[in-house]
Amino acid sequence: MLITIPGLLDPDALAGIRTSLETVGWRDGRITAGVQAARVKSNRQADLSTRTGAELHRRLYDAITGNAIFEAAAQPRKLSKLMVSRTGEGEGYGTHVDNVLMGSGDTRIRTDISFTLFLSDPQDYDGGELTIDWAGMVHSMKLDAGSLLLYPSTSLHRVETVTRGERMVCVGWVESLVRTAEQREILFDLANLRANLSKSLPIEAPEQLALAKITANIRRLWTNS
Ligand SMILES: O=C(O)CCC(=O)C(=O)O
Ligand SMILES: [Fe+2]
């Protein structure tokens, strides 16, 4: 399931993040890629190890994890460290599958879901679509700045070569409490149904209670602790 979250960053948050990005250092993106991916990766990544970098990381992290749609769709147990990358003219990231494990020690996660938070306005660059092979179909995605895309880490995907301008994004990975994309989709549909039902029915209505019970018990079956 591909899920887009429009406007995850509001214009003020986006502007603040862009301003901070003007002050960070950049290094070769291949250092964080796996062996196969490094051969096809061509971009630069923000150095988030400085004080400004860490503050920027915290702002991005809080915005992403504080978003209710992200929470409902991803059911995160843990997130990877976030990365911010910039891809200029002639650069891109060829077809690859993401590493199964990210991080080390206590912060090591299994990658179930990948996400991209777009930071550049689409009209500021050509090319640079995130192209995902999913369920036998190819999806080419270029979202508005501030919008986030979630896609299964199990997919082959690539970033098309940028032919004009520059593409800036924040990427990261989720280890989910719920193992499969099919299960997550059902839980996400249930969460949306409950949210919609709440607009017209009081929370103590029998239909609401029945749906709350069904949702809770399916989550009990599918949540891995
Ligand atoms: O830049 C993107 O949208 C995705 C990057 C990517 O596939 C990766 O970092 O593994
Ligand atoms: Fe990737």
UniProtKB/TrEMBL annotation:
The keyword Ribosomal protein does not apply. It comes from the Bacteria. Its cofactor is L-ascorbate; Fe(2+). It holds the Pfam family 2OG-FeII_Oxy_3. GO terms for biological process: DNA damage response; intracellular iron ion homeostasis. Residues 78-176 form the Fe2OG dioxygenase domain. 2-oxoglutarate binds at R167. Keywords: Dioxygenase, Iron, Metal-binding, Oxidoreductase, Vitamin C. Binds 1 Fe(2+) ion per subunit. Signal peptide: none annotated. GO terms for molecular function: 2-oxoglutarate-dependent dioxygenase activity; iron ion binding; L-ascorbic acid binding. InterPro entries: Oxoglu/Fe-dep_dioxygenase_dom, PKHD_hydroxylase, Pro_4_hyd_alph, Pro_4_hyd_alph_FE2OG_OXY. The keyword DNA repair does not apply. Fe cation binds at H96, D98, H157. This is Fe2+-dependent dioxygenase. It comes from Henriciella mobilis.
